[in-house]
Amino acid sequence: MGDYYQRDWGQHPPALSPDYKTSVARSPNAALLSLPQGVGEITGPCFGAGDAGPEDRDLIHNHARPGESAIGERIVLYGRVMDGDGRPLPRTLIEIWQANAGGRYRHRNDGYLAPLDPNFGGTGRTLTDEAGHYAFHTVKPGAYPWRNWANTWRPAHIHLSIFGAGFAQRLITQCYFEGDPLIAHCPIVHTVADEEARAALVAALDLNATIPFDSIAYRFDIVLRGRRSTPFENRQEGA
Amino acid sequence: MAKPLNYLKETPSQTAGPYVHLGLAAGAAGLTQAPAELGTDIAGPKAQGERIRIEGIVRDGTGAPVRDALIEVWQANAQGRYAHPEGGGPVEPGFRGWGRAPCDFETGHWAVDTVKPGPVPWRGGMRQAPHLSLWIVARGINIGLSTRMYFGDEDAANAADPILGMIEQAQRRATLIAPREDGSPPTYHFDIALQGADETVFFDF
Fold it and tell me: Domains of chain A, with CATH numbers?
């Protein structure tokens, strides 16, 4: 295999997005230095079954007392991880974290007045299967306020961290939920300028994937960078 | 008009936010009842090479510590091999070469314990000086920032390193080189400046 395709920066938010105020002091001024990929960029950590068990992808129960479960709208969040050529990414690690149904994170720095749910931790992880599929069972997170403008609300969202097969594919993102009116008002969503790209962050309601009389389902497919199938040794500049 | 190529577009990045620890470093978030954290042991007990510590602080454009950042490390072992099928060969059992460190919520300091990597191959038969690849995420960082840490006691290798040599403004190379302090373990100090006059060099690859 060869290099990963050059990143399409038009898909991503710029480092500096003044409407997302925290980015103003945390964004580099200098241009990123573009590197040819070497072995350290093409490779990345490998994970296996010992890193994510079946219970780790069930957030309704993975922090619950025996016989109890998390409160909220029960959902399946599922999808497929593939690369830019549509090839599935098997055995890749996905980690998620989220607020509970009231919009409160189980995090020592979150002081929102909504109560913690004693049966909900809000974090889970899984490996994709051989065809790149993944699924989590959880509750739909609530919206919550934050201080960007004086009165700003995050749409319901779940954070996802995905590794891929090499460090060049490493990605953290957030998925939103179809139909949420707060998406249109969120300065973090709108750090992504391209409308189609923003739409790729919205999980679609999928009635065909619901668990009848248990949970509704949202589908969120993830695309990581593609990769040349033929290795070409790049010419040295000036050679 | 031409026939469309139909490549799929990469899913856009979004900030890791202030609560990234809940998902990636649950102990720091205060979650006690969680599966074992990943990335707490980079090298494993059987790794060869010198045991070292790396510590530092991340600062924003005003000079203030970024106290909610999280750093990931990816590195070769002492033989210059990565724990990956394309990593150059077998590594010691338990060597993953990957780890994470949350910054301290009070002080902003981060630290990892690992082994010093060896030089790794580069294109055209060249070699890269020993280094770690780092990836920094935090609230206010819209897409993870990639950088490298080189070792302050590797002057000759650093001077010949093809990546450091690509940095046009020679004075900025120093932002990637961590000075060594002898001790037990030997410690390298690597501060990261997200923005400003002493801004760390960040990469796109």
Answer: 9-26+44-223 (2.60.130.10)
